[in-house]
Amino acid sequence: MKFVPRDNACFFDIEVKPVPPDVIEKISPFDAESWMKSERVKILADKRIKKEETRERKLSEIEGQVEEQKKLHYNSIAKESCLEPLFGEILCLSFSTEPGECRILDMEEEEILTMFWRELVPAAIHGADRLIGWNIFEYDLPFMLARTRVKDL
Known about the structure:
Elements: E1 9-17, H1 21-27, H2 32-45, H3 52-61, H4 66-81, E2 89-96, E3 103-105, H5 109-127, E4 130-132, H6 136-150
Parallel strand pairs: 1-4
Antiparallel strand pairs: 1-2, 2-3
């Protein structure tokens, strides 16, 4: 595959994905007991709850909410972790070097990184006046560099 900068410009973007759930479980397990204790304290301290039967009903509902809270916990971490190069992974790289053409590399992350550093970057440096993308200098390039280090490529 030969990269030739388009109109003396090279356009690219990356998409990232979060770490798998089993990794999230290891780095930030959901502590159901602590969550339930916290919820009980909130209910007991809530001065807006005047009736004792309402308070007892809310307390009894806590256990039924554990699974939903666990999902929210993991989804929140997955959403945030994908933006961190130590935990997120590159899902694909899209680029355009010729008018009307957009290519997508959707292979293993190591292959994407290898192709990017060995072929796309040299073509952009030696033939392009501009490297164009949304937030590429503050996010995409630093992320790709960090992932390259994490993967020891």
